[in-house]
Protein backbone atom coordinates (compact mmCIF):
# COMPACT_ATOMS: atom_id res chain seq x y z
CA UNK A 1 0.00 0.00 0.00
CA UNK A 2 1.39 3.38 -0.99
CA UNK A 3 1.54 6.01 1.76
CA UNK A 4 1.95 9.73 1.32
CA UNK A 5 2.86 11.50 4.55
CA UNK A 6 3.97 15.11 4.98
CA UNK A 7 4.07 15.49 1.20
CA UNK A 8 3.32 18.60 -0.84
CA UNK A 9 1.21 17.39 -3.77
CA UNK A 10 -0.27 20.78 -4.60
CA UNK A 11 -1.30 21.19 -8.24
CA UNK A 12 -0.97 17.42 -8.77
CA UNK A 13 -3.25 15.87 -11.35
CA UNK A 14 -5.05 12.56 -10.76
CA UNK A 15 -6.75 11.10 -13.82
CA UNK A 16 -8.27 7.63 -14.05
CA UNK A 17 -6.79 6.85 -10.64
CA UNK A 18 -8.33 4.25 -8.35
CA UNK A 19 -8.49 5.62 -4.79
CA UNK A 20 -11.12 3.15 -3.60
CA UNK A 21 -10.87 2.55 0.19
CA UNK A 22 -8.18 5.23 0.45
CA UNK A 23 -7.96 7.18 3.71
CA UNK A 24 -7.41 10.93 3.86
CA UNK A 25 -6.53 12.55 7.19
CA UNK A 26 -5.81 16.28 7.56
CA UNK A 27 -5.61 16.70 3.78
CA UNK A 28 -5.81 20.17 2.24
CA UNK A 29 -8.11 20.17 -0.82
CA UNK A 30 -8.58 23.95 -1.01
CA UNK A 31 -9.48 24.95 -4.58
CA UNK A 32 -9.29 21.33 -5.73
CA UNK A 33 -11.27 20.48 -8.86
CA UNK A 34 -13.07 17.17 -9.14
CA UNK A 35 -14.90 15.89 -12.20
CA UNK A 36 -16.76 12.60 -12.63
CA UNK A 37 -15.86 11.55 -9.08
CA UNK A 38 -17.71 8.65 -7.46
CA UNK A 39 -18.34 9.20 -3.75
CA UNK A 40 -20.52 6.13 -3.26
CA UNK A 41 -20.10 4.91 0.31
CA UNK A 42 -17.75 7.79 1.19
CA UNK A 43 -17.60 8.86 4.84
CA UNK A 44 -16.56 12.49 5.33
CA UNK A 45 -16.11 13.83 8.86
CA UNK A 46 -15.01 17.24 10.10
CA UNK A 47 -15.03 18.45 6.49
CA UNK A 48 -15.20 22.14 5.54
CA UNK A 49 -17.11 22.96 2.34
CA UNK A 50 -16.94 26.78 2.41
CA UNK A 51 -17.45 28.38 -1.03
CA UNK A 52 -17.81 24.91 -2.58
CA UNK A 53 -19.70 24.36 -5.82
CA UNK A 54 -21.27 21.03 -6.73
CA UNK A 55 -22.71 20.88 -10.23
CA UNK A 56 -24.62 18.05 -11.83
CA UNK A 57 -24.49 16.00 -8.63
CA UNK A 58 -26.79 13.19 -7.61
CA UNK A 59 -27.57 13.19 -3.88
CA UNK A 60 -29.36 9.92 -3.16
CA UNK A 61 -29.55 8.31 0.30
CA UNK A 62 -27.24 11.05 1.63
CA UNK A 63 -27.05 12.01 5.29
CA UNK A 64 -25.62 15.41 6.22
CA UNK A 65 -25.08 16.54 9.80
CA UNK A 66 -23.41 19.83 10.58
CA UNK A 67 -23.65 23.61 10.47
CA UNK A 68 -25.57 24.97 7.48
CA UNK A 69 -25.39 28.57 6.26
CA UNK A 70 -26.22 29.80 2.76
CA UNK A 71 -26.55 26.26 1.36
CA UNK A 72 -28.28 26.66 -2.01
CA UNK A 73 -29.80 23.52 -3.54
CA UNK A 74 -31.43 23.96 -6.96
CA UNK A 75 -31.72 27.69 -6.35
CA UNK A 76 -33.17 27.39 -2.84
CA UNK A 77 -31.26 28.25 0.33
CA UNK A 78 -32.19 25.24 2.45
CA UNK A 79 -30.48 26.39 5.67
CA UNK A 80 -33.46 28.51 6.93
CA UNK A 81 -35.83 25.68 6.01
CA UNK A 82 -33.81 23.17 8.02
CA UNK A 83 -33.61 25.59 10.95
CA UNK A 84 -37.35 26.15 10.94
CA UNK A 85 -38.10 22.43 10.78
CA UNK A 86 -35.69 21.61 13.62
CA UNK A 87 -37.27 24.32 15.77
CA UNK A 88 -40.74 22.99 14.92
CA UNK A 89 -39.72 19.50 16.04
CA UNK A 90 -37.93 20.78 19.15
CA UNK A 91 -39.44 24.13 20.24
CA UNK A 92 -36.89 24.56 23.03
CA UNK A 93 -34.12 24.60 20.42
CA UNK A 94 -35.13 28.13 19.39
CA UNK A 95 -34.25 29.29 22.91
CA UNK A 96 -30.59 28.27 22.49
CA UNK A 97 -29.72 31.60 20.78
CA UNK A 98 -30.74 34.07 23.48
CA UNK A 99 -29.98 37.80 23.34
CA UNK A 100 -30.35 38.84 26.97
CA UNK A 101 -29.21 37.57 30.38
CA UNK A 102 -32.63 36.16 31.29
CA UNK A 103 -32.69 34.22 28.03
CA UNK A 104 -29.29 32.70 28.74
CA UNK A 105 -30.37 31.64 32.20
CA UNK A 106 -33.57 30.09 30.80
CA UNK A 107 -31.59 28.22 28.11
CA UNK A 108 -29.15 26.81 30.66
CA UNK A 109 -31.98 25.65 32.91
CA UNK A 110 -33.53 23.85 29.93
CA UNK A 111 -30.23 22.16 29.11
CA UNK A 112 -29.64 21.00 32.68
CA UNK A 113 -33.16 19.55 32.81
CA UNK A 114 -32.80 17.77 29.48
CA UNK A 115 -29.38 16.40 30.39
CA UNK A 116 -30.73 15.03 33.66
CA UNK A 117 -33.18 12.96 31.65
CA UNK A 118 -30.46 11.76 29.27
CA UNK A 119 -28.20 10.89 32.18
CA UNK A 120 -30.97 8.96 33.94
CA UNK A 121 -31.45 6.99 30.74
CA UNK A 122 -27.71 6.35 30.37
CA UNK A 123 -27.56 4.93 33.89
CA UNK A 124 -29.88 2.12 32.77
CA UNK A 125 -27.07 0.80 30.54
CA UNK A 126 -24.10 -1.23 31.76
CA UNK A 127 -21.14 1.10 32.20
CA UNK A 128 -19.21 -0.85 29.57
CA UNK A 129 -21.80 0.26 27.01
CA UNK A 130 -21.19 3.89 27.96
CA UNK A 131 -17.57 3.41 26.87
CA UNK A 132 -18.64 2.03 23.50
CA UNK A 133 -18.84 4.34 20.54
CA UNK A 134 -21.35 3.98 17.74
CA UNK A 135 -20.27 4.37 14.10
CA UNK A 136 -16.80 5.56 15.15
CA UNK A 137 -18.31 8.40 17.18
CA UNK A 138 -17.47 9.22 20.78
CA UNK A 139 -18.85 7.06 23.54
CA UNK A 140 -21.32 8.56 26.01
CA UNK A 141 -18.55 9.13 28.54
CA UNK A 142 -16.28 10.70 25.94
CA UNK A 143 -19.10 13.05 25.00
CA UNK A 144 -19.36 14.23 28.61
CA UNK A 145 -15.58 14.66 28.74
CA UNK A 146 -15.75 16.84 25.63
CA UNK A 147 -18.50 19.01 27.12
CA UNK A 148 -16.31 19.48 30.19
CA UNK A 149 -13.56 20.69 27.86
CA UNK A 150 -15.91 23.04 25.99
CA UNK A 151 -17.19 24.65 29.19
CA UNK A 152 -13.64 25.07 30.45
CA UNK A 153 -12.53 26.63 27.16
CA UNK A 154 -15.37 29.06 26.52
CA UNK A 155 -16.55 29.87 30.04
CA UNK A 156 -13.52 29.12 32.21
CA UNK A 157 -10.81 30.50 29.94
CA UNK A 158 -12.53 33.03 27.69
CA UNK A 159 -15.15 34.46 30.05
CA UNK A 160 -13.55 34.00 33.48
CA UNK A 161 -9.97 34.46 32.33
CA UNK A 162 -8.40 31.29 33.71
CA UNK A 163 -5.53 30.62 31.23
CA UNK A 164 -5.43 26.92 32.07
CA UNK A 165 -8.79 25.67 33.40
CA UNK A 166 -8.28 22.06 32.36
CA UNK A 167 -8.86 18.77 34.12
CA UNK A 168 -6.89 15.64 33.08
CA UNK A 169 -10.14 14.03 31.87
CA UNK A 170 -11.05 16.89 29.51
CA UNK A 171 -11.29 15.89 25.85
CA UNK A 172 -10.92 18.29 22.87
CA UNK A 173 -12.38 17.44 19.49
CA UNK A 174 -10.57 14.68 17.60
CA UNK A 175 -9.00 16.94 14.97
CA UNK A 176 -7.68 19.45 17.49
CA UNK A 177 -3.97 20.25 17.52
CA UNK A 178 -1.99 18.86 20.42
CA UNK A 179 -1.41 21.87 22.64
CA UNK A 180 1.12 21.86 25.46
CA UNK A 181 -0.66 21.70 28.79
CA UNK A 182 -4.09 20.75 27.40
CA UNK A 183 -5.10 17.11 27.99
CA UNK A 184 -6.15 15.07 24.98
CA UNK A 185 -6.29 11.40 26.01
CA UNK A 186 -9.19 9.92 24.08
CA UNK A 187 -8.47 6.33 25.16
CA UNK A 188 -8.81 6.92 28.91
CA UNK A 189 -11.62 4.93 30.53
CA UNK A 190 -12.72 6.84 33.63
CA UNK A 191 -15.90 5.79 35.36
CA UNK A 192 -19.11 7.67 34.70
CA UNK A 193 -19.08 9.03 38.24
CA UNK A 194 -15.52 10.31 37.85
CA UNK A 195 -16.51 12.27 34.76
CA UNK A 196 -19.73 13.49 36.34
CA UNK A 197 -17.81 14.88 39.31
CA UNK A 198 -15.96 17.18 36.90
CA UNK A 199 -19.13 17.89 34.96
CA UNK A 200 -21.01 19.06 38.03
CA UNK A 201 -18.21 21.52 38.74
CA UNK A 202 -18.27 22.81 35.17
CA UNK A 203 -22.06 23.11 35.15
CA UNK A 204 -21.90 25.09 38.38
CA UNK A 205 -19.23 27.33 36.82
CA UNK A 206 -21.41 28.11 33.80
CA UNK A 207 -24.46 28.59 36.00
CA UNK A 208 -22.49 31.06 38.11
CA UNK A 209 -21.42 33.01 35.02
CA UNK A 210 -25.03 33.24 33.85
CA UNK A 211 -26.42 34.11 37.26
CA UNK A 212 -24.06 37.10 37.38
CA UNK A 213 -24.66 38.10 33.76
CA UNK A 214 -25.80 41.67 33.07
CA UNK A 215 -26.64 43.48 29.85
CA UNK A 216 -23.38 45.42 30.09
CA UNK A 217 -21.31 42.29 30.62
CA UNK A 218 -23.10 40.47 27.80
CA UNK A 219 -22.17 43.26 25.39
CA UNK A 220 -18.48 43.04 26.30
CA UNK A 221 -15.61 41.56 24.33
CA UNK A 222 -12.92 39.26 25.71
CA UNK A 223 -9.30 38.74 24.73
CA UNK A 224 -7.13 35.74 25.60
CA UNK A 225 -3.65 35.66 24.10
CA UNK A 226 -1.93 33.30 26.55
CA UNK A 227 -0.62 30.02 25.12
CA UNK A 228 -3.36 27.45 24.74
CA UNK A 229 -6.82 27.54 23.25
CA UNK A 230 -8.91 29.51 22.47
CA UNK A 231 -6.60 32.43 21.60
CA UNK A 232 -8.82 35.25 20.41
CA UNK A 233 -8.80 39.02 20.55
CA UNK A 234 -11.88 41.16 21.06
CA UNK A 235 -14.21 38.18 20.74
CA UNK A 236 -17.85 38.83 21.75
CA UNK A 237 -18.57 37.40 25.18
CA UNK A 238 -22.09 36.62 23.99
CA UNK A 239 -20.67 34.31 21.32
CA UNK A 240 -18.60 32.45 23.93
CA UNK A 241 -21.80 31.68 25.79
CA UNK A 242 -23.66 30.79 22.60
CA UNK A 243 -20.95 28.25 21.84
CA UNK A 244 -21.39 26.67 25.27
CA UNK A 245 -25.16 26.39 24.72
CA UNK A 246 -24.75 24.98 21.24
CA UNK A 247 -22.23 22.36 22.39
CA UNK A 248 -24.55 21.23 25.16
CA UNK A 249 -27.61 21.10 22.91
CA UNK A 250 -26.05 19.30 19.94
CA UNK A 251 -24.05 16.76 21.94
CA UNK A 252 -27.07 15.77 23.96
CA UNK A 253 -28.82 14.93 20.69
CA UNK A 254 -25.79 12.91 19.61
CA UNK A 255 -25.81 11.10 22.95
CA UNK A 256 -29.51 10.26 22.66
CA UNK A 257 -28.99 9.05 19.09
CA UNK A 258 -26.19 6.74 20.19
CA UNK A 259 -28.12 5.46 23.20
CA UNK A 260 -30.89 4.54 20.78
CA UNK A 261 -28.38 2.59 18.68
CA UNK A 262 -26.91 0.84 21.74
CA UNK A 263 -30.39 -0.12 22.87
CA UNK A 264 -31.08 -1.76 19.51
CA UNK A 265 -27.81 -3.70 19.74
CA UNK A 266 -28.73 -5.28 23.09
From TrEMBL:
* Residue ranges of domain DinB-like in the record: 111-254
This protein is called Pentapeptide repeat-containing protein
Q: What organism is recorded for this protein?
A: Nonomuraea wenchangensis
Amino acid sequence: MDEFRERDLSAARFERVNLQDAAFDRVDLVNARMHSVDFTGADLRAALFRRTRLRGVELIDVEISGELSNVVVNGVDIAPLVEAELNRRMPERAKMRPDDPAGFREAWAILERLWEGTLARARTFPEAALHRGVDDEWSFIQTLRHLNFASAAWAGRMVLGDPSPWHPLDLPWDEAPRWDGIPCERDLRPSLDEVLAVRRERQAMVRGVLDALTDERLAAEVTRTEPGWPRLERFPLKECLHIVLNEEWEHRLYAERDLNALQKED
